[in-house]
UniProtKB/TrEMBL annotation:
<feature type="domain" description="Reverse transcriptase Ty1/copia-type">
    <location>
        <begin position="5"/>
        <end position="73"/>
    </location>
</feature>
<protein>
    <submittedName>
        <fullName>Putative reverse transcriptase</fullName>
    </submittedName>
</protein>
<dbReference type="InterPro" id="IPR013103">
    <property type="entry name" value="RVT_2"/>
</dbReference>
<keyword id="KW-0548">Nucleotidyltransferase</keyword>
<keyword id="KW-0808">Transferase</keyword>
<dbReference type="Pfam" id="PF07727">
    <property type="entry name" value="RVT_2"/>
</dbReference>
<keyword id="KW-0695">RNA-directed DNA polymerase</keyword>
<dbReference type="GO" id="GO:0003964">
    <property type="term" value="F:RNA-directed DNA polymerase activity"/>
</dbReference>
Amino acid sequence: KGFEEGDKVCKLSKSIYGLKQASKAWNDRFNEFVARIGFQRCKEDSCLYVRQSKSGPVYLLLYVDDVLIICKDL
């Protein structure tokens, strides 16, 4: 497996699915997105995000690539 010609290099602009770095890249991008829409990451649990809304707190829980949202009303 790998390259037959060792003198060629490719620069990737994003992670390839299945690489070790892909999950971290996805998580970094997710963190940036939820921060932009007003969520703050919990210091005690890095998978929990909280945002205050008019009807109370909105909790967003991330587990691998599953998201659970808990709130009174969106």
